[in-house]
Amino acid sequence: MDRMTSWYCSPRARQWTCATSSGRALRFHQSLPGYAPTPLVSVPALADELRVGRVLLKDESSRLGLPAFKVLGASWACHQVLEAQPGATLVTATDGNHGRAVARMASQFGVAAIVFVPEVMIPATARGIAGEGAKLVWVDGDYDEAVRRAAAFAERPGHALVQDTAWAGYERVPAWIVEGYQTLLGEVDDQLGAAPDLVAVPVGVGSLAEGVVRHYRRAGRQDGSHPSVLSVEPDTAACVLASLIAGRPTTVPTAATVMAGLNCGTMSSSAWPVLSAGCDAAAAVTDDGALRAVADLDRLGISSGPCGAATLAGARAVLTDQARRAACDLDEDAVVVLLSTEGNSR
Ligand SMILES: Cc1ncc(COP(=O)(O)O)c(C=O)c1O
Question: Which atom of ligand 1 is nearest to the CA of 203?
């Protein structure tokens, strides 16, 4: 992937607005035992390096007892699904974190979980999911194939699919998942007290990024600010970047990456209209860039896995380039938020 194909920018995105979220997911999360906002950590060394006013990192290394943000979406969606279909066996496909979160929620709600995993999954991740009490099904194929297999399997009576990506005809559950993710953005608002100038989001199928764009583009935001949303993907699985450049949803072939949770070749169909209209910028980063960011954050005392640290690699790709800084309207006072969506398990 060359420089031209690893960057996208849409100056009109900041004018777009959408409906406000209901806030039901936040109230649900607040009712869960163990719920607490995760830290928003100021990292002055990164602000100096990136020549901006402040860099703040949303640290999702411990969220409701799991090492990633994903349980925010899974918990709300599982709750909603089981309200409609009490006692159902929950079925999903995963790159890792979502499956473990669904498995955890199934065990808390007292139902069974069946999790489809791609053959490239590392054994430790698979053990983490099985350790929650879920049945694992290995799929001879990639993440997209695992999603297809899970969806077909969940057709049987007494089973319900809890998938974190949408396609035509399967939109309700992914919408709950996106709504669940928005809890972390409400926390950022409370912690920061003002809108940031740039929010860097790690992207797999784009559901988290959909939540971020929906949050910062919601109609009726009072302060008149227009934070730029930056999508960050592995250069080996940059389906959102490819789609934004092509102007239509585009599936890309994928290859192994250290950013396992971002290894998706097809974006969520519900994310597409939101990101194509309201996402300001997108960048692809290399495994080396993500691993360097993991090590740099580790030296600064922050636990961030490759998916979370990818946001630092993405911010570097934007803020060290004058034209990109200007395109995103970022000056030396800019406030940058990095969503570090998982802890470092290595
Ligand atoms: C740690 C982590 N960060 C970010 C993402 C990306 O989220 P999405 O697939 O909604 O784009 C994932 C997805 O699994 C993840 O596990």
Answer: 11
